[in-house]
Amino acid sequence: MFATRYKKIGAKILYNRRLQGLTQEQLAEKANISPSYLSKIEHGLYSNLPLTTLWIIAAALGIDSNELLKE
């Protein structure tokens, strides 16, 4: 159940990143996280994701963090 939720969140991050024409490296730099960490998040592989990290990524994308959490 939670694995599916993390995959959906990751897919939304990936979608918004691509929509803005950003590479993983560019978004990771804007969010001040490593590209490998971002990759794991986008692929739903990070199952203990802090909400603060989601807020930072959402801010770096210029979107509301609730957009990432909506079903």
Low-confidence segments, ≥5 residues, pLDDT <50? none
User: What's the Cα radius of gyration?
Assistant: 11 Å
Give the % helix.
over 70%
Number of helices: 5
Label the structural class. mainly alpha
Tally of separate domains? 1
Order of helices and strands: HHHHH
CATH topology, by name, is: 434 Repressor (Amino-terminal Domain)
CATH superfamily: lambda repressor-like DNA-binding domains
Task: Name the CATH class.
Answer: Mainly Alpha
Strand content: under 5%
Distance between the termini: 13 Å
Largest sheet: none
**SS elements, strand count:** 0
Instruction: Assign an overall shape.
Output: globular
- Average pLDDT works out at 93
The CATH architecture category equals Orthogonal Bundle
Structure description:
By secondary structure, the chain is an all-alpha fold. It has a single domain, classed as lambda repressor-like DNA-binding domains (434 Repressor (Amino-terminal Domain), Orthogonal Bundle), CATH 1.10.260. It is 70% helix and 0% strand. The protein has five helices and no strands. α2 packs across α3 and α2 packs across α4. It is globular. The mean pLDDT is 93.
